Amino acid sequence: MRLWLLFLIVLPATASAASPRLCALPAPAxxxxxxxxxxxxxxxxxxxxxxxxxxxxxxxxxxxxxxAELPFVKHVAAAGGTITDLGGSHGLHAFAARNGxxxxxxxxxxxxxxxxxxxxxxxxPAQIQAIAAGxxxxxxxxxxxxxxxxxxxxQFQVFYATPDQQRLVPGVMWDASGKDLTRxxxxxxxxxxxxxxxxxxxxxxxxxxxxxxxxxxxEASYGTIGPASAPHLFMxxxxxxxxxxxxxxxxxxxxxxxxxxxxxxxxxxxDYEDHxxxxxxxxxxLSKPADQIVTAWQDGNESGPPAPDAAxxxxxxxxxxxxIGLKGTPTFIWRKSDGTEGxxxxxxxxxxxxxxxxxx
Length: 360
Description:
- The protein is α+β, with helices and mostly antiparallel strands.
- It has two domains: about 40-185, no CATH class; about 205-355, 3-Layer(aba) Sandwich (Glutaredoxin), CATH 3.40.30.
- Helices cover about 25% and strands about 25% of the residues.
- It has a five-stranded antiparallel β-sheet, with helices on one face. A five-stranded mixed β-sheet has the order 13-15-14-17-18, with helices on both faces. Strands 8-9-10-11 form a four-stranded antiparallel β-sheet.
- Strand 10 (about 155-160) and strand 11 form a beta hairpin.
- It is globular and about 65 Å long.
């Protein structure tokens, strides 16, 4: 069972009600494809006790004096991270953030407004240009750091050069508001964000307004937990999406007490960010019997070779997501008491009211 430490970054202590908390697609009508072989990272993000982690603390832990005025560090600390100063080198300041059993290393940009989630490797920008000649794409400079998108066959990695040009830091750059800057930098590079086009009809908000979602939910491949007599809620998730994970945490007690039947539809929308881990996780989940999918997700049981039909199941789920104009995960679909469809994009703010609105 696992939980990304990026919970500290992506889920701040407070969130505006005007901005739904969800893992957004890279662009409208752009989704990970089951036909696209996902790129494999040299090292996956740390994943620990994901579904049963305690809530993030809202009281900030003390910040070491040398880091106390850096906006990025203050954001992580305010979200519940315990900060350890690892000192400065090559023009960057390193620190570790820890929350319970989770930890992650960061290299803070010179302006203190962003950081790269990684540690320097003993390779210079000049060396990577020579080693990977013809396979290096320079990214625009962000917060004083030059980025490089380096491809090796089907694999790729993003590096950021230290200010003194003597080291490279592999990883994702985040700003002090929790925004993934690397995603935007690589979005225009062919193959960096796998996409699939499904059909030729309307997409995005227009599709969501015109296409009834409930009949499509029932055609999807999904797992269900909770009693059949309880109000039935569909939840579209990316298994690696922290907002999907957080929402599941919030709903588990309702399922356990018999007040909710929850059907979980796995999708892959974060491959652009996690180097294909979303697709690998979904293929694993969709290879399991329907009555084991949710438990496998909860337990972090997302490994092993995919079943022969798993890619087809994922492709069908992605087509459904496209048809309803999915904006991101989690997304909730249900039938209301008056027979109309209910829909919520993002983490629920009033779960009892949502469940109360579900009809038989």
